[in-house]
Amino acid sequence: MEIKLVIFDLDGTLVDSLPGLAHAMNLVLAEEGYPLHPEESYRHFVGHGIKNLVFKALPEEAAREEALLEACHGKMLGTYGRDWDHALRLYEGIPSLLDALKERGIRMAVNTNKDQAITRKIMETAGTQPEETLYVGDTLVDVETARNSGAFCAAVTWGFRTREELEEGGVGWMVDRPLELLEILEGRKKTP
Question: What's a Pfam family in this record (predicted)?
Answer without folding.
Answer: HAD_2
